[in-house]
Design goal:
Elements: H1 67-95, H2 130-134, H3 136-142, H4 176-200, H5 215-219, H6 221-225, H7 227-252, H8 256-267, E1 275-282, H9 288-300, E2 304-309, E3 314-320, H10 322-335, H11 358-361, E4 366-374, E5 382-386, H12 390-398, H13 404-411, H14 414-419
Parallel strand pairs: 2-5
Antiparallel strand pairs: 1-3, 1-4, 2-3
């Protein structure tokens, strides 16, 4: 029995594939048999294929907007130019000027250059450039009536005609806690920036601030070897740092004059637009201590006004900025103790002689009669005026056209004024 395995099997032959016909039949190109044949469209037959050559694909192209409008405008311009040339030719022919004219630059007659330029004429006395070589032009420049001087005329600066921008927003008012937080953050950022510069080598590292409390922690083994010398050195460094700190504080400290000017600048206020006024009514203003406080505080706060001393009504009128008026109101209504008058105190010589005793008048009090805003000041300075009668008091106030202050103060009763006093 014959054993058949894959090793001794013969491979079965695969039939070859039939290729396409390389040439068309004879009837294909015969017009009698193929009426649709066109020799001009005959495909080029190769040995491998009889299919026609594929047609190349064209990309999609869009016409740009305005293309044909530009072409039409160019065509109109050419037609217009052609028409204009024809009209010029006809006009020349009618005028009998058919001869070509020479319009080149050579045919135009030019004036000869001037002997002296117009910008040099005022500087040359004899109107020739020989004055430059002879020195006459130099003498002309150095004369008193020379047009050329060493001074420069600067035009007056004028603001450009533009609308003013919107006013800058007011800074946000922060609380004391928020201001401390911002200061702490700002100092932390500066310290971090300084440490970064030290790491990069831009700044020298600072010497450690050694104190007696951190002596062993900072110096370590060096402090153990010679503690007496190290302690003396640390004390010297501490004294040096203290003296440097005190010297820096002394340099920053303002002198008495600078401190006085600083306080004065803080009290200065702009009253060119609005002036605030406060009118006070006092029961008894005969005590010199009270007079001194009323006068001195008004001068320190740069307030103007007057004081009317009268038996019927003691009137105080002050005018100035809002800060000064606010401080003066606190002084008159809260700080001064008007009942603090010694029992044996007699009225001042320049004050009016009161016919009534303190027991009859009751407690000494100060009332705010009126406060408001006016356009300008009515007084130039702050002064006291002793008036024996109401007419004299009105005459003093009439100098500033504010005699109505007296009418309001005398008409108001103490009970009514006490009910509408501000809370300070």
């Amino acid at each position: 029995m014959l054993l058949i395995t894959q090793a001794n099997q013969r491979p079965t032959p695969v039939p070859a594939k039939k290729g396409l016909k390389s040439t068309p039949s004879a009837d294909f190109s015969d017009k009698t048999k193929n009426p649709y044949y066109n020799p001009s469209l005959a495909a080029t037959v190769t040995s491998t294929t009889a299919a026609p050559r594929p047609r190349p694909a064209k990309s999609l192209q869009f016409i740009q907007p305005g293309k044909f409008i530009n072409q039409a405008n160019q065509l109109r311009a050419r037609q217009q130019l052609k028409k204009l040339k024809q009209e010029i030719k006809e006009s020349v022919r009618r005028a009998g000027m058919e001869v070509d004219l020479d319009v080149s630059d050579k045919s135009i007659k030019k004036d000869p250059p001037p002997v002296i330029e117009w910008w040099d004429a005022p500087l040359l006395p004899n109107r020739t450039y020989e004055d430059v070589h002879t020195g006459a032009a130099h003498q002309r420049l150095e004369s008193t009536d020379s047009l050329v001087t060493l001074y420069i005329q600067h035009p007056v600066p004028i603001q450009p005609p533009a609308d003013p921008g919107a006013p800058a927003p007011r800074p946000l008012m922060l609380t004391k806690k928020e201001r401390k937080k911002l200061r702490r953050q700002r100092r932390l950022e500066l310290q971090k920036e300084k440490q970064d510069k030290i790491r990069l080598g831009l700044l020298q590292p600072e010497q450690p601030k050694v104190k007696l409390t951190n002596l062993m922690r900072v110096l370590g083994q060096e402090a153990v070897q010679d503690p007496t010398m190290i302690e003396a050195r640390v004390r010297r460094e501490m004294e040096t740092r203290k003296s440097t700190h005190e010297q820096a504080n002394a340099e920053r400290k303002l002198t008495e004059e600078q401190s006085r000017e600083k306080k004065k600048r803080k009290l200065e206020e702009d009253t060119s637009k609005v002036v605030e006024v406060a009118v006070f009514k006092i029961t008894n203003l005969s005590y010199p201590k009270h007079k001194f406080k009323v006068d001195m505080n008004a001068q320190q706060l740069q307030l103007t006004g007057c004081v009317i001393l009268n038996n019927k009504c003691n009137l105080v009128v002050v005018e100035g900025g809002p800060k000064g008026i606010k401080s003066y109101k606190k002084l008159m209504l809260r700080r001064i103790d008007w009942d603090d008058i010694p029992a044996d105190e007699t009225p001042a010589e320049d004050g009016p002689k009161s016919m009534d005793t303190d027991e009859e008048k009751g407690p000494n009090r100060c009332f705010l009669v009126w406060e408001g805003e006016v356009k300008e000041r009515a007084f130039r300075r702050f002064r006291f005026n002793t008036c024996e009668s109401e007419r004299a008091a009105r005459e003093v106030l009439a100098r500033g056209r504010v005699e109505h202050y007296w009418d309001v103060a005398t008409a108001a009763k103490d009970e009514e004024l006490s009910l509408r006093q501000p809370v300070l």
